[in-house]
Write a structure and sequence with these properties.
Blueprint: H1 2-37, H2 41-45, H3 58-66, H4 69-100, H5 106-115, H6 125-135, H7 141-164, H8 169-177, H9 182-193, H10 195-210, H11 214-219, H12 228-233, H13 244-264, H14 266-274
Helix pairs in contact: 1-13, 4-7, 4-10, 4-13, 5-7, 7-10, 8-9, 10-13, 10-14
């Protein structure tokens, strides 16, 4: 009995050791990048190795005094969060239609939706610029929200569609016997069942949106609509050269909301990444 307990405790120790080592490997680049943000710029660009770096808040003071970093972060959260909401509102009914209704050209429509993501964004950059200029939406968070939603709508629709294909139709048939309509079935049966897949699609859309640079730079012409991705470009030039510590600190602030979101919904996210398979 004692040997069994000893064996179990040893196995548990080995598991925690492996998981702890893996967590350290995953966190090491993040912590290293954060440490660069709190070091003097002279230590970062020096060719000599520094084994005991100096702690400095120069980059943080510069961001707080010379750059409206809070405004950039707010614009990023509003634009990304709004685009994800728009994508889910449009993608869930579209995916339900593609998986549950039989009509001519259904598979072709599904492939066309996905193929729009394969197009190079630079092809439509100029027409989109003139479109938003004529609508009076240039240099606004609303324009960024619509751009991000349009870019990621096809991916979100396809991901949600793949999860809906795994839901047995017997659940819907039983609900229709009880008198439920299509909207009731979608809201009370389909969405709760494929909620992990919907969360996964939302996280992927948020990551794609926060990394978008071309359209953000095109639409946001002033600091009123700058997001963190465009703000990073402001630290890569000028008379002082590349401000590495400021870049590292802003990059960490841009990464932090996604990290917090993933940690909060990691249970649903892990289920969404493992349930079902992407079907054509």
């Amino acid at each position: 009995m004692a040997s069994i307990r000893r064996s179990r405790s040893e196995n548990l120790f080995v598991r925690y050791l492996i998981l702890g080592s893996w967590a350290l490997i995953c966190l090491a680049p993040i912590l290293w990048f954060l440490s660069i943000g709190f070091r003097p710029r002279t230590e970062i660009i020096t060719p000599r190795p520094i084994y005991w770096p100096t702690f400095s808040l120069d980059a943080w003071r510069m961001l707080m005094s010379d750059w409206p970093i809070a405004s950039y972060l707010r614009n990023s959260v509003l634009a990304v969060g709004g685009s994800v909401i728009i994508d889910l509102v449009l993608a869930i009914p579209a995916a339900y239609s593609l998986t549950r209704y039989d009509y001519k050209g259904r598979e072709d429509i599904g492939f066309y939706i996905l193929s729009t993501r394969m197009m190079a964004p630079a092809i439509v950059a100029i027409p989109i610029f003139f479109l938003f200029r004529n609508l009076g939406l240039l240099d606004s968070v609303w324009a960024l929200m619509l751009i991000y939603a349009a870019i990621n709508l096809s991916v979100v629709t396809w991901i949600v569609r793949s999860y809906m294909l795994d839901i047995p139709k017997e659940l819907e048939d039983a609900a229709r016997v009880d008198g439920a309509g299509d909207l009731t079935i979608l809201w009370e049966i389909i969405i709760p069942v494929c909620l992990p897949g919907i969360i996964t699609a939302a996280v992927i859309a948020a990551i794609f949106a926060i990394n978008e640079f071309l359209f953000t730079l095109l639409i946001a012409s002033t600091q009123n609509a700058y997001t963190l991705s465009v703000a990073l470009a402001n630290f890569t030039g000028g008379s002082d050269g590349v401000i590495y510590n400021a870049i590292a600190l802003v990059s960490f602030l841009a990464f932090l909301p996604i990290l917090a979101l993933v940690i909060l919904i990691q249970k649903h996210l892990s289920r969404g990444l493992t349930m079902g398979a992407v079907k054509g």
